[in-house]
Design a protein that fits this description.
This protein is mainly alpha-helical. The chain folds into 2 domains: 78 residues, no CATH class; 86 residues, no CATH class. 58% of the residues lie in helices and 6% in strands. The protein is built from 6 helices and 4 strands, in the order E-E-H-H-H-E-H-H-H-E. The strands form 2 sheets. A two-stranded antiparallel sheet has the order 1-4. Strands 2-3 form a two-stranded antiparallel sheet. Helix 1 runs antiparallel to helix 3 and helix 4 packs antiparallel against helix 5.
Length: 186
Amino acid sequence: MKVDILNISDGVSRCNINTKCNVLRWDKGDLGVYYSLTGQLLQNLFVPYNLLQCKCEGDACSHKADINHFYNDLLLVLNSATTETVPMIRCNSSKPYWTAELQQLREDSIQVCKAWSAAGKPTQGWLNKIRFHAKYKYKAAIKNATLSFEWDLDDDLSYCYLQKDMNKFCKKWKQRFYKKVQLLCI
C-alpha cells in the first residue's frame, strides 16, 4: 500500500464558537482498529534513515525539507487512521450533564412514539397516555439534570469566592459566563 503525500498543515486551527468545527470522540472510537491501521500505514512509510547520521550546524541545515516531508507523511498516516476509526461530532454538541439514564429515557420515548405512530397516531387511549408519560418524564429529567448541573457550577463559584482563591474563581467565572471562547478545531 502506497501512501500519497499531501502538503497538510498541523491539522489544528482556531475557530470562533459561531463557526462549524468538529472534535474527535476517542471514547467512542475503536482503538484496536486504530492501532492496527496505524501500524499497517506506518510500515509502508519511507523512513529517511540518512537524517539520523547527518550533522547540521545551526540554521544552515540542508535537511529541513526532508524533515518536513517526513513529518507531513507521519501526520497523513495518523490523520488517515483517525478518520477511518474515530467518529467526529460538532463542537458543543454534547451536553455536559448527559447521563446513561437520560439516554435510556430518550430511547424509551422514541420507541413509544414509534409504536404510537405505527398504531395510527391515536389521540385518545392508553397508547397516547403512555406516549405523553414517556415524553414528559424525559423532558422533566432533562430539566432536572440541567438545573443540577447549573447549581453545581454555582456552588463551585461560591466555594472559590469564599476560599478567596481568585485564580480558580476567575476560571470558573469565565467558564460559566463567557460563551465566545476560542476552541481548537480539527
